[in-house]
Specification:
The chain is an alpha/beta fold. Helices cover 47% and strands 18% of the residues. The N and C termini lie far apart (52 Å).
Amino acid sequence: MSVYKTLSLALLAGAAMMTTAQACEITLRSSDTHPEGYPTVAAVEEMGKLLEERTKGHLCVEVFHSAQLGEEKDSIEQTQFGVIDLNRVSLGPFNNIIEETQVPSLPYIFRSVDHMHHVMDGPIGDEILAAFEPHDLIGLAFYDGGSRSFYNSDHPIKSMDDLKGMKFRVMQSDLFVDMVGAVGANATPMPYGEVYSSIQTGVIDGAENNWPSYESSGHFEVAKYYTLDQHLIVPEVLIMSKKSWDKLSPEDQAAVRQAAKDSVPVMRKLWQEREAASEAKVRAAGAQVITDIDKTPFIDAMKPVYAKYVTSDKLKDMVARIQATQ
């Protein structure tokens, strides 16, 4: 049978084993590639706790962490099919599907994490969430994804010249591929779960990610040079299958939306704590953190990326509104 039917049976079997799930009338199955205890995983668990309390056990959430339901690209498709009910995913994999997600994924579009929060918590964020629905998905909330920086196994990166010819893993996004190419390196799209062994065996030189991902994946063990160029501050998004959404009553839908939004401050607090802990851990393990870097050449190098992806008046307007947000 198809992978979707096989997965459906596995999900149902797993749900049946959960005491909480047994007590609930409706259990929403949620996917995350990150490990147990990771801020995004804990935030969705908090959402489930709120839902169960507020609906008196009518709605619950069961979180499948550590890519138990597949890597992000596959899990997105399964969410569209309704095999997975909820999914926490970076905006990157949606760049080739939903054009509005390209804008907050642009390099250096956000001046800081606070700037990103102001944008994504407002009308622009609501506009981007609404863009998921024509693709059989319901956008519920944005989580933090930290600032992404380059790390590698070969040498410290202090300028764009140090990147030339190097091979870096990126998410399966054309925009990310072009971003890496713009600084003179070579992009290799691959699933997150394959990065460690690919660095270890020399298939790639490194990758780019935030502090918690660099630490929790163990990538710092095989790529000890971490350069804080902070080229991306890409939000993560919590989505729901439209097929699953349409099965809920309006009251249940409202409860899901509110619980998702109420999980955001919890996630942000946990994220800040996790970032600090992750940085301390990798520094203690001997990772070399390069902070003395002039970002101006990196920012200037992104002009062709903006020219390629920000083509419609709609996207140009969104970029202008983001840049004008204080």
